[in-house]
Recover the amino acids of this structure.
């Protein structure tokens, strides 16, 4: 059996209508998984599920839900369970970043939104999926963090704080649930060419400056994150627990 085979597995991937989440969902399906496509927008979820189902591989269903609503997440997980059975893999990818600028200028409302959507929602999702994993004595929780969680920033400081907390969630869940053969890990991307990060790269000057100081002289693309998620979600990553895997082309060591 291939170490990366996901046949018969069910994966929920939040924020999977574009960018990193979509790339992970597509590659999971290509390796045999049943995939739940979820974001706030129903028609976008349906479109991505249809794209995946038109190809060979696993099956996808669209279950829109906002990560800001615990009830919406409860309903989404319940419907996923009804459709596919127990949840094997959770990829908590969806996040928010409504503020660009120094910490002194962030409103309480924006700060709370970042903390709620980037930290607490991941805890909710894990708690909703864990019973299935405990019953099976097997499972993988993968949180998409950021290299921002490893350093400070004068522009996205609150986001970086939330992403550092995600790394600690992974460590704590690894300690608490490892005895059930459940692995919890983070992936920490660098700057990736996605709509979510567009404010950081969407000008020729900003991109040129980034490329000039980057070890690989280029920005990453969403597909380059999917391999790490496939590794962590499959048998290939069966003894990796509580870790943060940095996928940044060398940003954190070379700039």
């Amino acid at each position: 059996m291939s170490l990366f085979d996901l046949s018969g597995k069910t994966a929920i991937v939040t924020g999977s209508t574009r960018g990193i989440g979509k790339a992970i969902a597509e590659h999971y399906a290509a390796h045999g998984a049943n995939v739940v496509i979820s974001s706030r927008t129903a028609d976008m979820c349906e479109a991505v599920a249809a794209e995946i189902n038109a190809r060979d591989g696993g099956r996808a269903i669209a279950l829109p839900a906002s990560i800001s609503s615990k009830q919406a997440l409860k309903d989404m997980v319940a419907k996923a369970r009804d459709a596919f059975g127990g949840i094997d893999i959770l990829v908590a990818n969806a996040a928010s970043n409504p503020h660009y600028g120094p910490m002194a200028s962030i409103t309480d409302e924006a700060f709370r939104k970042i903390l709620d959507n980037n930290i607490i929602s991941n805890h909710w999702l894990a708690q909703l999926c864990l019973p299935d994993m405990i019953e099976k004595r097997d499972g993988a929780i993968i949180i998409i963090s950021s290299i921002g969680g490893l350093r400070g920033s004068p522009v996205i400081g609150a986001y970086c704080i939330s992403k550092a907390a995600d790394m600690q969630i992974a460590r704590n869940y690894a300690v608490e649930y490892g005895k059930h053969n459940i692995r919890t890990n983070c992936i920490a991307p660098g700057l990736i060419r996605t709509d979510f990060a567009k404010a950081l790269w969407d000008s020729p000057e900003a991109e040129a400056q980034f490329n000039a100081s980057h070890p690989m002289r280029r920005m990453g693309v969403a597909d380059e994150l999917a391999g790490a998620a496939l590794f962590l979600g499959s048998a290939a990553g069966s003894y990796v627990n509580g870790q943060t895997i940095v996928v940044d082309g060398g940003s954190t060591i070379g700039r």
DSSP finds nine helices and seven strands in the chain. The longest strand covers residues 182-189. The mean pLDDT is 93. The first helix runs from residue 19 to 30.
